[in-house]
Amino acid sequence: MSWRIWAGATGAALLLVTGAVAAVPVSAAPRAATVTCPTVDPATGAVTPAPAPSVDWSGCDLVGANLTSASLLLADLSDANLTAANLTKANFDSADLSGADLTKANLTERHRLLRHPFRRR
């Protein structure tokens, strides 16, 4: 007996069992959560929605963001653009900053920022 399974984009699979063909629903693999990037007010740097622990802002444009004293514990900021962001006293404990751009970011009095690699130009 020979089994062959083909999964299609519609979430169905075709099974070929000794010449018989049947369509069987296939549960889709869990998809990664969609990242919802915040907005940054260009005049004040205010970030909406406000930062919170475990936030996923990977790949987001946070140029000029005011994240002073923000709690970004376990946050995903990988590949985020934090150019000229104010990160004074921000808590990045166990945050992922891999690939983040911190060009001209204010990192004074930072709190546990160096857990993950990041790029500063």
UniProtKB/TrEMBL annotation:
Keyword Ion transport listed? The answer is no
Check the record and name the Gene3D superfamilies matching this protein: E3 ubiquitin-protein ligase SopA
* Signal peptide stretch: 1-22
What UniProt keywords are attached to this protein's entry?
Signal
Keyword Thylakoid attributed: no
Q: Which PANTHER family match?
A: BTB_POZ DOMAIN-CONTAINING PROTEIN KCTD9
Cross-referenced InterPro entries: 5peptide_repeat (IPR001646), Pentapeptide-BTB/POZ_domain (IPR051082)
**What is the protein named?**
Pentapeptide repeat-containing protein
